[in-house]
Structure formats: structure tokens, C-alpha cells
Amino acid sequence: MPHRTAFFISDGTGITAETFAKAILAQFEIDPKRVRMPFIDSPDKAWQAVRQINHAAEVDGKRPLVFTTVVNMEVLAVLRAECKGMLIDMFGTFISPLEEELGMKSNHRVGRFSDVSKSQEYHDRIEAINFTLDHDDGQTNEDLEKSDVILVGVSRSGKTPTSLYLAMQFGLKASNYPLIPEDFERRTLPPALVPFKKKLFGLTIDPARLSEIRNERRPNSRYASLENCRYEVAEAEAMMRRAGIRTLSTTTKSIEEIATIIRQDLNLQ
Amino acid sequence: MPHRTAFFISDGTGITAETFAKAILAQFEIDPKRVRMPFIDSPDKAWQAVRQINHAAEVDGKRPLVFTTVVNMEVLAVLRAECKGMLIDMFGTFISPLEEELGMKSNHRVGRFSDVSKSQEYHDRIEAINFTLDHDDGQTNEDLEKSDVILVGVSRSGKTPTSLYLAMQFGLKASNYPLIPEDFERRTLPPALVPFKKKLFGLTIDPARLSEIRNERRPNSRYASLENCRYEVAEAEAMMRRAGIRTLSTTTKSIEEIATIIRQDLNLQ
Asked: Any transmembrane segments, and where (chains A, B) (predicted)?
């Protein structure tokens, strides 16, 4: 298959363009060379981008795919007129029909982050990240009541990356708390969690997969042994069932999927 | 202004749909009610979505905006035929022209994460998150050479959230290391960092903004005082300049912007 190049062009960070392009490209059995071009925010930079795109067109002998979220009209005009790629204009395509539907002009503002130090939403998101880090792995019970959600589960069931994703992507304060052998012997939830039952969400995992993951961290340890993983998972599942906590198996799920299910289930918007 | 509802509909997590819709909606001075509908992956669920959309259309007296990344053709057919919203079909719109350009059919596969426990890319990303957490705030010098980037700067200059974003979004191993008064007295970089000068990236911040941020954590402390913030920032900037480390001011920048600039600057792909 002849080589192709895909460009991701934005007048901002290009993260939306890249996320979008990844999702679209996953629909095809191709693996193009990827070139990221963030901060293309002047006609001058647009011309530089055009030069690269047209060079790739010549070298590849195939039209490059040019995914763009540019909103600056001057920049877009240069790309439209001059680039020899296939322009996949994810904003422009929808902006005109939306202007008509909404009966208003768009503002052509770049990105969502022009003034972060003054944005309450951004401030809250950073706060959520800090809160989540402070409350990782049951480090502290202080302010636990301020959590939007408290994840529980055995060590390495996916609590930490999921908590961080909930904070980073959705601005949620996500604590997480390990279930450990002492809890299983006592056969009750860690006492600090009891007042917050409605905020608890349990993660579980297939013992064989858990053993694999733990073996990467501590090879050939009792901690990572299949036998111990089976014991811990069975105990943790039984405990969560007794306590009436919703649980989800993370075995084949991405942190995006786990986080989306938690958010939907606990109705966190 | 009459009320409007925006729906984000996906057969996967809907995170791409939501990211995209947020970026598009930021172009207009409207603030619609937002309804997320992930995992709409069967005609049955599509019908349920249609009912909600058409209900909103009636209540609002305005067509809802329906942002969708659905790739399942049966689901899409129901939405197209039955929903009384304005369908903003970010995948379908581009898939047909791309099929033509590429000379192949798309696979209509949902999401990128169908088999995460077997995906090397996903595994590496989780590893990067774990590495980044282990190397937060100079906690350990072990494996420091495996870092893709090492962020340095004074306490609360934005190192931790930026590191986590680099790991979470781009799968980069991002360590971070604080510059502290002892370093300023010694007037040299922390010795552990010296071998990795090429991986260092400095974050700096306006002292007044730093004082604000620190005051949220430790009100009225010497640590948060404007005088101390001025001293630390001046010393850190001088040290990074002497060491020839690239630096960026985070004062008005989002973690997305900071991460994108670092990635571009250090040529981390």
C-alpha cells in the first residue's frame, strides 16, 4: 500500500483535531505517517503548513489527509486555496449550518482556554486533580466527604488511573481506597468509608489478569501469585456485594470506558 | 433566548463526541442544556435516544442539536430517519468521502479500545501514568533516565498536573522535580538532574499568580507570601537560564497548552 501522510492542523493545541482524526482513522485499515501542527494561528504559519503538506503530497504521490479544527478565517482561507491535501475541516463543515440553525454568527474564537487563570471551570478542574492525588490509595481521610466518588477495590484493579482520568477529563473529585487483607479478615468495609456508601463504586478484575499486572510490578511475589489474587478478588467481591456497592469489572475495559460508566451510574454530570 | 438542548450520542464512551461538541459550541454565545448518551449501540437504544430527543424538541420548541459519533449503521439509520433534532454527524459526514479517497470501505468499528488488555499502546499509556505518579515531585531518582521529559520548577508552578496530562493524553513518561530553597542556596541544579539536561523543561510563573495559588493551599504562610514567591521565581529562573534549560511561563496557560508546547519543543511524538 502506498504511503500516506495525515496532518493534524489547529490554531490551538490541536488536541481536538488529533482525537477526532484518531477516531476517524480507526475506521480504516491504514496507518499513515502522522504530523501534528498546533498553533497555526496566522496566514504566515498557514503558508508554512501548506509547504509541508504539498511537499508530502509530492513525496508520497498521494494526497495527504489534512484534519483541521482551524477557526481563524484567514488561516483557513490559505489552507483551502493552496493545500494539495484532502481537507477534512471538522469545524468549518458544521459551523455554517449551525449559524443558520441558531440564527447567530460564530465568534471564531480559538480553543476553550484563552484565559485559564480567570476560568472557574479550569480552576475547579485543577482543584479536582489535586484533590484526587491527595486522596489516592487511601492516603488521607480528610475531606473524604468532598469526594464526588470513592473508588474501592483490591490493589491494581485500576483505581488510580481511573480516578485521575475522572479528575482530568471530567473535573470530578475522585478518591480511591484499597481493600486489603486486614479488611477481608475483619469482613467489613474500611470504617472510614461507611458514612459515604452512596459515593462508593467498586472495581473488580479477573484474578488471572490481576496476577499478570501485579507480576509486572513484583515478579514472583506472593502478592502477585494467582492463588493470592483469586483469594483477594473473591473476598473483595463478596464484601462489596454484602455492602450493596455497585461494581464493575475492569479486565477488558479502558479507563475511558470505566470512567464513563461510573459517571453515568452515579449520575455525575 | 429560548432554551436549547444538545445531545452527545455515541456507541462508545462519547468522549470524542463531547470534546468535539464542546469545541464547536464554544464558537457560539449559547449555553444549551447538555445530555450525554454513551453506549447507544443497538437500534433499541437508538429508539430510546430518539424518544428523549423528540421530547426535548417538543418541550424546548426548538430543534435539539444532536452531536453524534455513532458508527453502527443500524443505529445511525434510526437517528437519521426518526430524530427531530439537527443531526451533526461528525463521523458519517467524513467517512464516505474518505472511503472514496482511500479506495477502501470503513470497518464501522466502535471506539479505539475494544480489547485494551491486549493493546500494547494502552499498556504503555497505563505504564506511563504509573511511572509519572512514581516520579511526581522528585519522589525517587530510580529509573529517572527512562523519563521522556523531566519538568522542573518551583512548588505549584504547574508541574504535577502537566506531567499527568502528558502521561494520560500522550503516553509520555513525565517526571517532575521541584526546585527548592536548598537548590537556590547551592546555586546549582539538584545533582540527580545534571545527567539529563536534554530532558529537562522548566516551568515558571508570575510571582503574584503563584502567591494566589499557594495561598489557597496554605493561607498567610511565608511559603505563599508574595515576597517569598518573588524570591523563589527569580532564583529558579536564573538557575534555569544558567543551566540552559528551556522554560515556559504557565501563568495564563492551560495544561493542554503547556503539554502541547513541551511535546513540540522536545520533539516528543
From this structure: none
Q: What count of other Cβ atoms lies within 10 Å of the Cβ of residue B182?
A: 8
Cβ distance A256 to B109 less than 8 Å, yes or no, reads no
Cell of A175: 478518591
In Å, what is the CA distance from B87 to each residue of A19, B92, B161, B239?
A: 20, 11, 36, 55
User: Is residue A234 over pLDDT 90?
Assistant: yes
CA distance A108 to chain B (A): 6
Handedness of CA A76, A81, A85, A90 (dihedral sign): positive
Is the CB of residue B30 less than 8 Å away from at least one CB of chain A?
Answer: yes
Return the pLDDT at A114.
Answer: 61
Binding site listing of B: 153-160
Burial label for A231, CB within 10 Å (0-12, 13-18, 19+), is: middle
Between CA A106 and CA A179 the distance in angstroms is: 51
Single-letter amino acid, residue A110 = V
pLDDT cut 90: percent of chain B above it: 85
Using a CB–CB cutoff of 8 Å, tell me whether B161 touches chain A: yes
What cell was used for A241? 456485594
Judged against a pLDDT cut of 80, whether residue B2 lies above it is answered with no
d(C-alpha A224, C-alpha A219), whole Å: 7
DSSP string, A192-232: GGGGGGGGEEEEE--HHHHHHHHHHHSTT-TTT-HHHHHHH
ipTM of the complex: 0.92
Q: What whole-number distance in Å separates Cα of residue A24 and Cα of residue A42?
A: 27
Query: Around Cβ B105, how many Cβ atoms within 10 Å?
Result: 11
Task: List, in sequence order, every residue forming a beta bridge with A113; answer none if it has no partner.
Answer: none
User: Does residue A81 surpass a pLDDT of 80?
Assistant: yes
Asked whether the beta carbons of A184 and A211 are under 8 A apart, the reply is no
- Tell whether B106 is within 8 A of chain A (Cβ): yes
Q: Which residue has the cell 493524553?
A: B169
Burial B6-21 (b: 16+ CB within 10 A, else e): bbbbbbbbbbbbbbbb
pLDDT tens for each residue of B3-26: 899 999 999 999 989 988 988 998
Contacts of B259 in chain A (CB under 8 A): 13
Q: Is the pLDDT of residue B1 over 60?
A: no
